[in-house]
Amino acid sequence: MSDATIQTVPAPAEAAPAPAMTLEEKKAAARARARAAKEAQAAGAAQVDVSDAAVAHIRQVAQEQGKEAGVRLRILAGGCSGLEYKLDLLNPGESVLDGERELVSNGVRLLMDLKSSIHVTGSVIDYESTLLRRGFKLKNPNATSTCSCGDSFGV
After folding, report:
1. Of 33, 46, 39, 22, whose CA–CA distance to 142 is shortest?
2. Verdict on whether the full-model pTM lies above 0.70
3. Which of the residues 13, 36, 51, 68 could staple to 126 if both were Cys, CB 3.0 to 4.6 A apart?
4. Is residue 123 part of a domain?
5. Cα gap 23→33, rounded to integer Å
6. In a domain, 60, yes or no
7. For 10-54, what is each residue's pLDDT tens digit?
8. Any idea what DSSP says for residue 68?
């Protein structure tokens, strides 16, 4: 028989979840996002970046459909988490609508209204193609929750 001793190692402690934001904290965060969006717009800076993979896909699909290599990004109420992303290709020569902002990121035109830009300032539009999923993915630093499919978010 062996005189080996068995030692037990305690499981690592799990980090406690962050406490939920109060209504006042959510309002303050929304005001900060609105200020950041307005300041970025005034400075002419892109508020949303478009990755190389997303640019390649936008250009490919736009060429196939006879559309412009640009998108309109809107945030709508709905989805699992309360807000959802909507991306549409631009028609050739499509102009900026009232209340919209025009950005150019990585050579692609991006149109969005101010309310939408408040929710996505600092985001990256990416495109992924895997065995399980193919499509656009928004990496949004303002989202406090997302659904598993990534198409909706909460703030």
Report:
1. 33
2. no
3. 51
4. yes
5. 15
6. yes
7. 555 555 556 677 778 777 776 776 677 667 666 655 578 899 999
8. E
